[in-house]
Design the sequence.
């Protein structure tokens, strides 16, 4: 148990480090990109400065039409400056938005990887069941406080599997059918027991729960993949 706890803690710490490094890398790359982008954008006052140079270098522009033209150029420079400033704001907002999306994508990716690892552990070790209570009178099963209402036939099949698990036995399909029907195993068909197992899994509904709870051991038979100490029958 300590080994499993230590492994889980190390995996969680490793995942947190990956997230932190990923977020730092994303933010760093986008900051560099933003810096290079902003320093290469033209100066917002560049147009105004050119118009000012025209005023300074051409003192002979004194007619009304020439002065009016220079005023129009100055107004155009102001408009260009305002547009470029708005572009800077838009670019900044887009960079912030892209940063948020990349960070969210990284977090989701790490979460999915963690869930896949957890699913792999469950597939290797079986479902972690802390309690399995079988109520024959009510045709109900309580699995980790989850209630499953089953048919009478499904309850009988699960009860047989539970009794076999407490005795640390593995039952073939024929043996399951024999224990339920009261006949000898050699008089029962293997397919009949397999059909009962299938109906039990269908009755449990959740494919993940049913497939991991009821383990099929190749060329041996069926068993409940849980600790026998957690089983109670009433």
Sequence:
């Amino acid at each position: 148990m300590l080994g499993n706890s230590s492994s889980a803690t190390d995996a969680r710490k490793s995942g947190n480090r990956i997230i932190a490094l990923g977020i730092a890398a994303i933010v760093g790359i986008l900051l560099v990109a933003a810096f290079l982008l902003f320093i290469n954008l033209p100066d917002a006052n560049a147009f105004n400065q050119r118009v000012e140079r025209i005023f300074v270098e051409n003192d002979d522009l004194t007619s009304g039409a020439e002065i009016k033209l220079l005023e129009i150029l100055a107004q155009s420079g102001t408009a260009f400056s305002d547009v470029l400033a708005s572009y800077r704001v838009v670019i900044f907002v887009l960079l912030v938005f892209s940063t948020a999306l990349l960070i969210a994508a990284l977090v989701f990716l790490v979460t999915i990887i963690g869930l896949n690892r957890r699913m792999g552990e469950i597939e290797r070790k079986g479902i972690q069941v802390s309690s399995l209570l079988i109520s024959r009178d009510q045709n109900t099963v309580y699995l980790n406080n989850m209630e499953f209402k089953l048919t009478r036939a499904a309850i009988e099949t699960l009860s047989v599997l539970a009794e076999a698990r407490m005795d640390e036995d593995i039952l073939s399909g024929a043996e399951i059918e024999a224990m339920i029907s009261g006949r000898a195993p050699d008089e029962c068909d293997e397919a009949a027991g397999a059909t009962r197992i299938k109906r039990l899994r269908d009755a449990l509904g959740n494919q993940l729960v049913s497939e991991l709870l009821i383990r099929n051991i190749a060329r041996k038979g069926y068993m409940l993949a849980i600790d026998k100490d957690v089983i109670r029958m009433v």
About this structure: Residues 2-125 form one domain. The radius of gyration is 37 Å. The first strand starts at residue 132 and ends at 135.
